[in-house]
Amino acid sequence: MSTTSPRTKPQARSTTGAVGDKAFHGLALAGGAIILVVLAFVAAFLLIRSLPAIMPETFGPGADEAIDFWEYVWPLMAGTVLVSVIALLLATPIAIGISLFISHYAPRRFSNSIGYLIDLLAAIPSVVYGAWGMLVLAPAMVPIYQWLHENLGFIPLFAGDPAVTTTGRTILTSGVVLAVMVLPIITALCREIFLQVPHLHEEAALALGGTRWEMIKMTVFPFARAGVISSIMLALGRALGETMAVTMVLSPGGFSWSLVTSGANATIPSEIALNFPEAFGQRQAELIAAGLMLFIITLVVNVVARAIVSSHAKKAEGL
């Protein structure tokens, strides 16, 4: 018995480990399948409920006296993409700069405190951002919009009627509010990615005589490129779907390239939030169809982001 017991115990542990691996594999597979099933059900629900609005023979007369669904929805899609792009253009360089300062420049006793303060921005409810943008930021931006119109009005982005910029509730104001909202997302992810850069690479760059900035360009940015792109795309998804802050700040309207004109743009989330509670029948189908367009935009953005990240990962591996 003494010779057989030592042999049976390791075999029992090995069998238990194999069972645990199979169970974990099954749970992970089931979790992934559930996500895909839920996604398929959401897509099917949006498609079925939006058919009365999408089909030309059953549309209308729709919102804003649109002739067909696409005439109604394209200004909303353009406004959604435009305000999200503005937010990313404003937030990305600031977030990357803050991340680099925390990870490579700030003293350790200050870097943690700064990181906590940035993370707190993500805990603020979107309705608070909306109230701040509507009551504080929008009036403060009016003189800036007036100056931009007077001096750069020949550019379509700053053209329009200056008389309607007195409220400051423009798509540029919404973009600034969204930039503040997505800033902690990009900052937190980039900070963690920058901290994962191998120290040997950084020390080798410094040993070759490079300055700290040259070391960052040679080692940090190439290593973190895929992660930075992922963080930007994640923030874009948040900006595309933001509802309350944009609804409170942005005056509803059609679509205009002018960033300083009030009542000239609207987004899909704000359109749904403002009109869905009172909508029924054809109008409800229009709003659900607009949500379907937002679903498609978000899906395309994520697919493109994954393709970009995969290509950069392969280049980093030398494949």
Outline:
By secondary structure, the protein is mostly helical. It is built from ten helices and no strands.
How are the elements arranged and paired?
Layout: H1 5-54, H2 69-105, H3 108-121, H4 126-152, H5 171-195, H6 199-207, H7 212-241, H8 244-249, H9 268-275, H10 282-317
Helix pairs in contact: 1-10, 2-5, 2-7, 2-10, 3-5, 4-5, 5-7, 6-7, 7-10, 9-10
Notes on the structure:
Helices cover 76% and strands 0% of the residues. The longest helix is centred in the N-terminal third of the chain and has 50 residues. Helix 3 packs across helix 5. It has one domain: MetI-like (MetI-like fold), CATH 1.10.3720. The protein is globular, with a radius of gyration of 25 Å. It has 10 helices and no strands. By secondary structure, the chain is an all-alpha fold.
Task: From the alpha carbons, calculate the radius of gyration and give it in angstroms.
Answer: 25 Å
- Low-pLDDT residue intervals, each spanning 5 or more residues: none
Number of strands: 0
Count the DSSP helices: 10
Family: Belongs to the binding-protein-dependent transport system permease family. CysTW subfamily.
Protein name: Phosphate transport system permease protein
Organism: Yaniella flava
InterPro entries: MetI-like (IPR000515), MetI-like_sf (IPR035906), Phosphate_PstC (IPR011864), Phosphate_Transport_Permease (IPR051124)
